[in-house]
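[recover] target loaded
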């Protein structure tokens, strides 16, 4: 009877550990366009145009603003570890290139190697110039040559001048 109780307790402990460990796993999420390789393979350069691409692949994620009006389809797999910020796990960027007559010229496929990680520099943006304290900002003009408000009468045309 005692061995059966130990086995039940061990099984309960293993179940509790498994439940706690599953709570610490990363959350996976998909963002953006769902890439269907069959549909992508059906778009043929020289045969398809903007209208047929839109009917086959749908509206693009965005259209280029400069140069040729290429269409981009973005697909991302994002992983969020417990108590941390989401990170891009994998990414696919599809670029559909068009000629002047809106016919498909080519389709390019890129991966996560195109992602640029930008790390901002702390809480402040570095600027050119001197670093001054609050006191220097408030009282920095006292005694400066030509500073206005030093008791001099205004000279020249104006409401108080001649």
């Amino acid at each position: 009877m005692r061995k059966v109780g130990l086995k039940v307790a061990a099984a309960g402990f293993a179940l509790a550990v498994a439940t706690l460990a599953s709570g610490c796993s990363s959350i996976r999420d998909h963002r953006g366009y769902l890439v269907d390789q069959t549909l992508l393979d059906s778009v043929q350069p020289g045969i398809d145009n903007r209208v047929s691409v839109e009917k086959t692949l749908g509206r693009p994620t965005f259209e280029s603003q400069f140069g040729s009006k290429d269409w981009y389809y973005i697909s991302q797999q994002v992983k969020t570890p417990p108590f941390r910020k989401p990170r891009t796990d994998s990414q696919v960027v599809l670029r559909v290139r068009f000629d002047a007559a809106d016919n498909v010229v080519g389709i390019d496929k890129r991966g996560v190697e195109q992602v640029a990680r930008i790390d901002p520099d702390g809480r402040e943006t570095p600027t050119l110039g001197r670093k001054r304290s609050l006191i220097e900002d408030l009282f920095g003009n006292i005694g400066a040559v030509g500073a206005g408000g030093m008791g001099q009468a205004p000279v020249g045309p104006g409401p108080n001048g001649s």
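[recover] notes: Strands lie at 27-32, 62-63, 71-80, 87-98, 104-110.
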